[in-house]
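Obj.: predict assembly geometry.
Materials: sequence records (below).
Method: joint structure prediction, all chains together.
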Amino acid sequence: MKRTYSRREFLGMAGAVAAGSVLAASTPVTALASQLQAAPAARRQAPAVLTPRKVRIAVGGWAEQNMKDLLARTNFTKETGIEVEVVLRTDTKETELTRLASAVQAGTSPYDVIDFEDELTTSFSRAGYVIGLDDLLPPDFWDDFPPEMIAYSQTWSTYKGETFRIIHNWEMPYWWYRKDWFDARGIPVPTTWEEVKPLGKVFTDETKGVWASVDGLIKGAFLNVYLAWITLQAGGNPFDVGPEYKMALEYIYDLMYTSKVLNPASLQKDYNQQNADYIADRVAFMRQWPFFGDVARSPENKDWFSEDKVAVALPPAGPGGKAGSTYAAAWGFGIIKTSPNLAEAKELLKFLVSKEIAVEAMKVGFWFLSARKSVLAAAPQDNWLVKQLKMYTDAGVIGVRPFHPRFVEALTILEDTAAAYLTHQISLDESLKQAKERLAQLEEE
Amino acid sequence: MHQTYARAPSLARANGQPILAALSKAGQRRYVLFLLLIAPAFLLRITTAAYPILQTIYLSFTNLNLIKNTNEFIGLQNYVAVFHDYGVREALSFTIMLVVSATILELGIGMLVALLLNAAFVGRGFARTINLIPWAIPTIVAGYTFRWLLDDQFGLIPYWLNLLSGARMVAFIDPVSARIAVILVHVWKDAPFMAIIFLAGLQGVPQDLYEAARVDGANVWHRFWHITLPLVMPLTITMGLFRVVWSLGSFDLVYGLTQGGPGVATSVLALQVFREGIMFFKFGFASTISVVLLVVVAIVGAIGLWLFRRSEVSY
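Observations (raw structure tokens):
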């Protein structure tokens, strides 16, 4: 039988339910409070339980297996009693920054140790998200590093005299070229900017879509890499917007539109498109990061690949001299300030950056390859990447990557203004003026 | 039969007395019940819509920056900076250009496709289904795909153009062609959705109106102009309004296709908010751009509602 309720009864019941819910909700709080008060006594009575020590390290997806293999191979857990969980960080720096910023604001962190890149190091160290590491390092630690890596670390991994990241991966753009094409034409590899310009006439055939050179210069940090590379060759830092930067922009413009060396469509390409152009036999030479060597040697390109097609030479030197012909970028380990397992994180970091483990890491995977003396000495000398790294290191062509304290914002300014000039939207003077004004504004903020 | 509805309690004061006091006992109870019943919905809207908007407006007057750890009230400084910022100015102009041109084209093409899909032909069901494929593709995927489709070396579109004209097209190194490319990809992506909505609208137009017009000697064009168009006009304005609002707030296509380049030629306001807020952590400044975006949306919305009221027809 259906029973109808009056409004008064309905409201009365609703009130009772609401009051009941409030009381029920408050009960666990009260119970929890009394439990907390009783906890010290309970702890005194309870038998001692050994809590396992744990630490979390965040690495990119590409390095996950390498890290797991390294930890297994070196018996870290067995020796220290600390269990390590390898977790994945996001691939993009923006997403990782967002994730960590909110965690640090809340006084916690999704991981204790992180493997991170240059851009994040600048942001993390200035925001105070990572701890200084100098106290963890033995006094002779830096003796194992070549001067180029020390200069690099002092610029990119240090803030107010304190080191916030210890680098393990240090790689640079190489100058790749088609040795078969150069040999067929009897042309030597260019060694200076001036020697590059005539190569447009030699190799470029616009009707066939063939260009002497190509690059990945789409906005979103791609263009900035090239701007920094060329400005460094000119002897300066693009973020200074000085005469060297002006010279660099003029040179790039010349390569694109006057000498017809560099395909202007590079401005719409990312690295995958750049590599595809090279492997499609549309390019005679290019600047590219070492991952291109893996792409070229991958099974899907085995019909195309030969060593003559992916030869590496030193980059053509600019007016700044050969010492700044290229620059390296790096990844390294740091510890999050709000790490829930700070002591364990410090132990893990000390372990990972030690000389012996750095060498073991390189044996596990080339993600841990750098010009660190012990690492480079132990590396297989017949490997193509090791040979290239050694060639560039021995030749002394590696400069320090151009730096700005607010790197991500500053590079966006340069990309906006440089691309506008290189696509004929504004004049060179206007481009330089805008870059200068906006960078100055950034410093005032 | 007449149906009577209980009157909602008036919110005005009666004879200068507070509302509750002016009501009878039964009226007071009804009023309390009314408040209780609307409270959940009201709270939900307050927490999910009003609070974020008010907080954004508040943040727009601060220099909140998570990296620099600043959070001070700075008055109108952000608003002054926004209109002096080269990137924001250019983004504002392209945003308006993109939203207006893409919406007009989407409405026009959507209507044409809907008229086609409304005609009787073999395979109509299949045609209606495949029409929706571009809309079903995630926008960011469409952006990256078209970057390859427009690639100077491997792109299908430059290849066809090369076959037809002999010219080699490089879409994204010229600001004009880059803007046209972004607008056309936008239209390609969203016009099919418009078509499906218009198709539903067309199917709601009474056939006897067309028959009466035919008897009166009206040709195809007259029937479309005097019957179809006026009857689907409210739908057109509603959909146009939705498209404008959705387009104003999205940047995924631009992000995948051009990253706002060359220079800032194809940058949009939403991309600027993303850059300033998520990449640079300048929440104060990003909030200011969001407020500008909000004002633009509000103006467009008001115009749309005004047009909607004017377009109402009865038959």
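Conclusions so far: The domain at 53-172+328-399 of chain A is CATH 3.40.190.10 (D-Maltodextrin-Binding Protein; domain 2).
To do: check interface contacts against the pulldown list.
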